[in-house]
Amino acid sequence: MKNQSDSRRTFLKTAATGSLAVLGLPTIIPAHAFGANDRIRVAVIGVNGRGKSHISDFSALPNVEVVTLCDVDNVVAAQRAADFEKKYGRKVKTEQDLRKVYDDKNIDAVSIATPNHWHALAAIWACQAGKDVYVEKPGTHNLKEGRKLIEAANKYNRIVQHGVQLRSSTAIQEAIKLLRDGLIGKVYMARGLVYKWRPDIGNQGNGPVPEGLNWDLWQGPAKAREFSKNYVHYNWHWFWEYGNGDIGNQGIHETDLAMWGLDVGLPEEISSSGGKYLWKDCKETPEVLSSTYNYPKEGKVIQFEVRPWMTNKEDGVEVGNLFYGDKGYMVINGYNDYKTFLGKERTPGPAGHAGGDHFLNFIEAVRARDKSKLNGPVETAHLASGLAHLGNIAYRLGRQLKFDPKKEEFIGDSEANAHLSRQYRAPYALPKQV
């Protein structure tokens, strides 16, 4: 009988090959084919960090208009609106509360670049409000949110793109096709690498909430804490209430690619170890993390490494993936490059370098009302994020875990299963029924 992990693999393979027919970006319908009423109006939610790229990338697309900038920090929103007016010669609306964005019937799609703990809830609320969604990685803060997000996208017939932009790289699409075609033989192992410079963040303690920041709204579904500059605006990544460490930050690109390249779903066995070895700061998540995800029934394994500071590269890679087969191996460096090495002599094989436009891909799917056109569909938000979550749970519990991919729960382990969701703070609760 075909199990759920089999169906996931079929989905991932379909998603991979669907855009490979021409090995290039899909042709967007030209702007002149639409009237003024066909312009896609986008709101960007969270504009301090990654959201700045969302603003510029959507603004560069034909017949797409960024109409609203939303941020819980009014100071940030005002600065970004001023930057926008200076660059594009027109004013843009600002909001502090994303719920007001969802009430605006003039907005067609939202682009979510908030901290991780808001991603799934913001996306689900958007689907319920009839908005299409581009949501940054990781699409979820815990495993259970992923299934809810898929349910919402399907129930409300929304186009939901996950921000794993390497899936829109034509070079990476080509690399996946080569793996499928057997270039390096039986592909049995993938390594994901995240070697980023992460400094000591110290400990700034608690303090008054800065003027303009709605601290209650910033915390959203998370347990309430006193305000600290330790969290706002970037270092929330290193605290379990808000972030998921670097495997759940930069690493989602690599967890996604590891699963895509190996053609697997969620694993059956997970182990992780690591810790904080360099800085005596207030981070909660590990600086160094080594995770192993085993697929014994399929004879495959994913290894994942997070390192924070001085380290060697692996075949030139600091952030990327390596795939190993019985006839060679493949190196994927960053988002747009791959190389292959064949045989015992490691003879250089096919290589490629080419980019893509993940935002363009999203807009094309929105225009066509066709989720099959998405390179990073909602299922990737669940699976790629889910792999990171499982590794983090194994690290936090300090032991190997057995997982049932069909039921999406740990086997006979109530302590581990308690980490698959969270206690949500009213009124920012994940809906029981989407």
Automatic annotation (TrEMBL):
Hey, what's the signal peptide range on this chain? 1-33
Keyword check for Signal, yes or no.
yes
Q: Where is the Gfo/Idh/MocA-like oxidoreductase bacterial type C-terminal domain?
A: 172-256, 359-429
Name all Gfo/Idh/MocA-like oxidoreductase N-terminal domain ranges: 40-163
Q: What does the record give under GO molecular function?
A: nucleotide binding
Keywords recorded for this protein, A-Z: Signal
Q: Which Gene3D superfamilies match?
A: Dihydrodipicolinate Reductase, domain 2, NAD(P)-binding Rossmann-like Domain
Against InterPro entries, the record matches this protein to: Gfo/Idh/MocA-like_OxRdtase_N (IPR000683), Gfo/Idh/MocA_oxidrdct_glycsds (IPR050463), Gfo/Idh/MocA_OxRdtase_bact_C (IPR043906), NAD(P)-bd_dom_sf (IPR036291), TAT_signal (IPR006311), TAT_signal_bac_arc (IPR019546)
Question: What is this protein called in UniProt?
Answer: Twin-arginine translocation signal domain-containing protein
Q: Which organism is the protein's source?
A: Larkinella terrae
